[in-house]
Amino acid sequence: MNIDAGTMRPTEHGEVYVLNDGGEVDLDLGNYERYLNVTLSRDNNITTGKIYREVIEKERKGEYLGKTVQVRFVSFPHITNAIQDWIERVSKIPVDESGEEPDVCIVELGGTVGDIESAPFVEAMRQFQFRVGHDNFALIHVSLVPDMHGEQKTKPTQTTVHVLRGLGLLPDLIACRLLGPESLNPATKDKISMFCHVSSEQVVGVHDVSSVYHVPLLLQSQRIVEYLTKRLKLDEVKVWEERKAKGAELGKRWKELTAGQERLFDTVTIALVGKYTDLKDSYMSVTKALEHSAFRVHRKMTVHWVESSDLEPETQETNPKRYHDAWRAVVGAGGILVPGGFGHRGTEGMMLAIKYAREQKVPFLGICLGFQLAVVEWARNVLDIPSATSAEFHTATPEHPLIIFMPEISRTHMGGTMRLGLRPTVFEQGTEGWSKVRKLYGGKGKIWERHRHRYEVNPVYVERLVKSGMNFVGKDEKGERMQVCELKNHPFFIGLQAHPEFCTRPLNPSPAFLGFVAAACGGDVLSEQIELQLKTFKPPHPEGAMISEAQLRNASDANVRSATGGVEEGKKDDEAGKGAKDPASVHMEVVQAINDDI
């Protein structure tokens, strides 16, 4: 029933992936963007909450002419119709630089067959196949085929297909997921074909491979492309020669990428110091950005997962082994990465890791919270302000808030109200000669990355920070908001307020992560990659997406009004709250409660 993924705990649902338009979505959309090299929008993420909200709003406006609103009703199924209309509308939105409507739309229906949560969507798909016609609808059913002591069991697949057929959906392809290196046996394939009412060519096996980047080639080897081309009559779709050439080139580069992976011997080790390390999916895009960068520098990637609170003195007293193991992982790494997060828990450990990286000249990359904590750590230990902190960690205003709440952000609504989406960063004049991060972005004076934050560096302290050696090489268009920091006399010490991991691609890694991994490799690897980036860097965003902050803010404001229930409702809340508890303190208590819980 969530509207989006923005308010979900990362330890419960994995990372919240941010799109160009500020949509906070499930991490699956990140996988689609990376694999297909497309740019999606918030409307590409359909949730039950969005559908119900849309239907209820129409009912309130009287658009159903007094009829009883139904989930599934013969004369007018309101919910299922809304789902179909949404899919049809979004399927026509361009997703690449061509600006053309897509020829094929992939719809992922998550969950398990029979789940009550997915029932309206399953029914909508049953109806949708008749709306668009048989030649325009193909269903791929993914089913687990467990291996019991060497015998591949087909009964779970038979049962789910039987239930699915009872709901009015017949699979065109059955993708059999096998947990292990063994491929699908011919006998198993024939058995599934017989009892699931499909031909053998409609059953494909997806077993474990050495890398997820081998999966497209695994599916291609089983002629899935040829089957879908025939099934959906895609050979009748006109494809320009230029696009065919691009597709052929992509296929060639992808094969080179996967083949190169198997020949890697040297390893680069990164310590990821985070607060949600119990569920590694919380940092899905971060790990993918590290992988993509490692491919470019021809290294195997090893990540040391370090729970930040394990680095704190309290852990040394309560669990000395965890403490020493955590520090051994940090000290033994070629680079230290502190990613984003929320709340006070574990931040002291993060700052200890940042201090170690700064003083010992270990390559460091700070993302969002990591960037903010790098500023706080510098203020404490270089500017000698022991009480330097972030306003996020205190309900009352602290003595020295190096990080403050952004004035334009809502203090009473959490969902969809942060500074979200693709935002420009302008590099400072005079940095083109020495700034490593600027060179990694091709030496451009202006770049775009995706953001997700409520807090910013306090402008009151900026002058003191800069004079002491903390260089803010990148700012917003007005020059008021600090967005990139870099230490000049350090092998690689860079922090970004943005989340560059959201724009990484297997064949076009994030520049910030690429530089970080290259620096962690040692030797001349970083200088070689900087030279290459200066020649070949290409932004991963469509040209039309790289617009000014003012234009982006106008679109974002509309989304905020939608997420908070409208301007008038907000005014009513303000009036009702006069004399009541300060909304800011209420907001901070909610945020703190969530982070204490996780």
UniProtKB/TrEMBL annotation:
EC number: 6.3.4.2
GO CC entries: cytoophidium; cytoplasm
UniProt entry keywords in alphabetical sequence: ATP-binding, Glutamine amidotransferase, Ligase, Nucleotide-binding, Pyrimidine biosynthesis
Stored Pfam families: CTP_synth_N, GATase
GO biological process, one term: 'de novo' CTP biosynthetic process
Positions of region (Disordered): 557-586
Family matches, as CDD domains: CTPS_N, GATase1_CTP_Synthase
Pathway: Pyrimidine metabolism; CTP biosynthesis via de novo pathway; CTP from UDP: step 2/2
Bias type Basic and acidic residues, positions: 568-581
All copies of domain CTP synthase N-terminal, residue ranges: 1-234
Domain Glutamine amidotransferase span(s) in chain numbering: 279-517
Domain of life of the source: Eukaryota
InterPro entries on file: Class_I_gatase-like, CTP_synthase, CTP_synthase_N, GATASE, GATase1_CTP_Synthase, P-loop_NTPase
GO MF annotation terms: ATP binding; CTP synthase activity; identical protein binding
Catalytic activity: UTP + L-glutamine + ATP + H2O = CTP + L-glutamate + ADP + phosphate + 2 H(+)
Function, as annotated: Catalyzes the ATP-dependent amination of UTP to CTP with either L-glutamine or ammonia as the source of nitrogen.
Family: Belongs to the CTP synthase family.
PANTHER family on file: CTP SYNTHASE (PTHR11550), CTP SYNTHASE-RELATED (PTHR11550:SF0)
Protein name: CTP synthase
Classification of source organism: Eukaryota, Fungi, Dikarya, Basidiomycota, Agaricomycotina
